[in-house]
Design brief:
Farnesyl Diphosphate Synthase, two-stranded antiparallel sheet, mainly alpha, single chain, 15 helices
Length: about 300
């Protein structure tokens, strides 16, 4: 079976995890719990799928990776909820429907993001049945905290805010997106690595390079889709980077050069994955899936 054929089972694992760990609206405070569940519905789920794909090439049982897969998606969703707020991108559309602050209210959206973030680390700390040793679980928590904090995603978002209305060099733009988008994607493969003991020589380095290249390519592609895509297809507002006067790869490099850079990075990611030989299929499939996306 190909990774594509196993995809439904991985998505079901995530749905089961959300059903288990997200508090039901019947529990107080009902409005917050309803908003948490609303925000977690839908999406491409690329980050948790990346954890499962890396786990496959390393021979890690998916059950061992369930807490990390769920936690990284909770972090990603929290970042989207906060990113859409009026103080940030002030967006009305996410995943093809109203953003959380539009569906509920701004204060509830802030609390929703806060609660999703804390739940991510609660899951990692509490899911003892997954089979990770305490030190492995602690390392997973460390990786996710670092990737989502000021030296990762949150720091990259601040750099993005600071760059609004400014001209950046390609190097400055790349540094921003390595933090804003790349850090969390890289953390996905590293969390899978730390679930494997012992880890063969070279496998950590290969997956680390794969994650770095894929994360940056993903962001360049996002910048391109913001220009060329349509809101109905993207599920979010197209053209918002231009409307907010934000520097992007197309605006800094030009559209043709940005697309070429993304192609090169996807190629580098595939090259890093080929260290695993025939076992690399899940990583190669995901790279192609991401490269070919239109949303």
């Amino acid at each position: 079976m190909s990774f594509a054929e196993r995809l439904p089972s991985y998505l079901q694992r995530l749905d089961d995890g959300f059903a288990h760990w997200l508090p039901p609206p019947s529990q107080m405070p009902a409005r917050l719990h309803e908003a948490m569940r609303y925000s977690a519905e839908g999406g491409k789920r690329l980050r948790p799928l990346l954890i499962y794909a890396a786990g496959e090439v390393l021979g890690v049982n998916p059950r061992v990776l369930d807490p990390a897969a769920l936690a990284v998606e909770l972090i990603h969703v929290y970042s989207l909820v906060h990113d859409d707020l009026p103080a940030m991108d002030d967006d009305d559309l996410r995943r093809g429907r109203p953003t959380v602050h539009r569906q509920f209210d701004e204060a509830t959206a802030i609390l929703t993001g806060d609660a999703l973030q804390s739940l991510a680390f609660y899951v990692l700390a509490r899911d003892h049945d997954a089979g990770l040793e305490p030190l492995q679980r602690l390392k997973t928590i460390e990786l996710l905290a670092d990737a989502s904090g000021s030296r990762g995603m949150a720091g990259g978002q601040q750099m993005d805010l600071d760059a609004t209305g400014r001209s950046l060099t390609v190097a400055e733009l790349e540094a921003m997106h390595i933090h804003k988008t790349g850090a969390l994607i890289r953390a996905c493969v590293l969390m899978a690595c730390h679930a494997k003991t012992p880890l063969a020589t070279g496998h950590l380095d290969a997956l680390d390079r794969y994650g770095k290249y894929l994360g940056l390519a993903f962001q360049i592609q996002d910048d391109v889709l913001d220009v060329e895509g349509h809101s109905d297809n993207l599920g979010k507002t197209a053209g918002k980077d231009r409307n907010h006067n934000k520097p992007t790869y197309p605006s800094v490099m030009g559209m043709s050069a940005a697309k070429a850079r993304a192609r090169d990075l996807f190629g580098e990611a595939r090259g890093a994955a080929r260290v695993f030989g025939d076992k690399a299929e899940p990583l190669l499939w995901l790279a192609s899936r991401i490269e070919g996306r239109d949303r």
